[in-house]
Write a structure and sequence with these properties.
336 residues; globular; nine-stranded mixed beta sheet; 10 helices; 13 strands; 35% helix
Amino acid sequence: MSDITELKNAVCRFSDTRIAVIGDLMLDVYLWGAVNRISPEAPVPVVNVRKRTSCPGGAANVMRNIATCGGSVKAFGAVGDDKSGKELLQELAALGVDPSGIISTTSRCTTEKCRVIAGAQQLLRTDFEETGPLTEELRQKMVDDLSELIIASEVDAVIFDDYAKGVLSAWMLEKLIALARQYNVVTILDPKPKAGGVTPVKGLTLLKPNRSEAFALSKVHDTGSAEDPAQDQQLLLAAQKIDAEWAPEYLLISLAAQGMALFRHGKLLKIIPTMAREVFDVSGAGDTVAAVCTMALAAGCDAADAAAIANHAAGVVVGKIGTAPILKEELLQALH
């Protein structure tokens, strides 16, 4: 791995990167308040809501992390023609994200996840979403628009962010990955192995699941993490099976407190220890890793350096409450 100075220089080059993100867009809403009594109607706490905040979530949170680190973002996805969709588009525009590839449709609602928080404790989450497949007509439009950018050499990397909400499909990834390889564009997939998620596709530059997602993708039984991830035979087996089915150039598995494991062609290249000092909230950390790792690859880093930089970024955001992005200044400071 390169020294800290080289990693920091790579982060400074993030402002030159042009990233397209396509996937499931969400609006994360937070209701902040305090609990002083139990409801007389049912044995549940009564939350006196003091304020409401919102921020981009899902693939939109990946876009936000790229923007706050200085990268240029082209956004692709779908929102409903509703209040939440308009709010999300406004927030992305305020970040400098190019929303021209986002489709507003009356055929579905905008995915909204509302969290009720008292003090530092999340009490409840309500989801408003539709997870059926997006129409093939709308999918084709996104593929055509993104293909034009790839052919015109207007993007350095493409992130596919799949939350199994119906936007992405295997044929979309196959077509865009093949085109990206032809034009030397980096491709990364953050998969969600759920019903409705994408099926295996080959040719990715990097596949980035967390531990539970890796075992679900590989259909290997997780017997529990070993003290040393390099000696975790089930994890190694999962990586081999993923490589056989997906064949990415690199596989990066997030291991929570154990850091990350980087594989190439099913073989372990490196274990990257976690940089988190305090963990308050892991929500959105995977989005941060996907965003920062992609920018680092687009800035010329090799996979090990890109993973190391992303690991430092994750160590910062898990120390924040709520879905929070990494700022470029915070990442440079973390690299000290």
